[in-house]
């Protein structure tokens, strides 16, 4: 026996469904990354400087690390979603959700280890994450609004 039920219809010869056309220029999905990376680098430098003035080298490292975590996290999500949308738009939701679950799980582990440690830069790390999220989200919202108004 081949393991296939005789009542099951053969589906191998059916045509594939039509896929929606790809956008003419998919670069718009990542064109904001250069500007956001520049803003994030400026925030990283400000966070490191503020951390150093407030609590020394550990606080500087923590604040800069928090901003860096957010920058890498958001950049990764943008790249994964943009890639999935250019390959096959139906992949955007599953890959986007997988990316979010993976990165927030990793962020949760990093913050849980940081909170339970005796490292003096842990408060600055948390503040750096908060600053990174607020600035990245604000700048991305501004960018999208600016781009939408341009069109």
Q: What are the key terms here?
A:
151 residues, mainly alpha, 0% strand, transmembrane helix, membrane
Polypeptide structure, described:
Keywords: Membrane, Transmembrane, Transmembrane helix. This is ATP synthase protein I. The chain crosses the membrane at residues 33-54, 60-84, 91-113, 125-145. The protein has 151 residues and is mostly helical. It has one domain. It has four helices and no strands. The protein is elongated and about 65 Å long. The mean pLDDT is 85.
Summarize the structure.
The chain is built from four helices and no strands.
Query: Averaged pLDDT, please?
Result: 85
The beta-strand count equals: 0
Specify the overall morphology: elongated
Number of helices: 4
The H/E string reads HHHH
Uncertain segments are none
The secondary-structure class comes to: mainly alpha
Distance between the termini: 62 Å
What share of residues is helical?
Answer: over 70%
**Quaternary assembly:** single chain
Strand content: under 5%
Q: Structurally, how many domains make up the residues? A: 1
Radius of gyration: 22 Å
The biggest beta sheet is recorded as:
none
Transmembrane segments: 33-54, 60-84, 91-113, 125-145
Keywords: Membrane, Transmembrane, Transmembrane helix
Organism: Actinoplanes teichomyceticus
Protein name: ATP synthase protein I
């Amino acid at each position: 026996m081949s393991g296939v039920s005789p009542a099951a219809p053969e589906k191998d010869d059916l045509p594939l469904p039509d896929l929606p056309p790809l956008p003419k220029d998919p670069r718009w999905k990542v064109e904001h990354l250069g500007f956001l990376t520049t803003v994030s680098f400026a925030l990283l430098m400000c966070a490191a400087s503020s951390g150093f003035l407030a609590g020394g080298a550990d606080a500087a490292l923590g604040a800069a690390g928090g901003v860096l975590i957010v920058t890498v996290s958001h950049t990764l999500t943008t790249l994964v979603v943009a890639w999935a949308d250019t390959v096959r738009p139906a992949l955007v939701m599953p890959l986007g959700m997988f990316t979010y679950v993976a990165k927030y799980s990793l962020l949760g582990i990093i913050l849980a280890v940081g909170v339970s440690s005796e490292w003096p830069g842990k408060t600055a790390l948390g503040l750096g994450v908060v600053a990174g999220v607020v600035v990245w989200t604000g700048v991305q919202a501004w960018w999208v609004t600016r781009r939408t108004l341009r069109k």
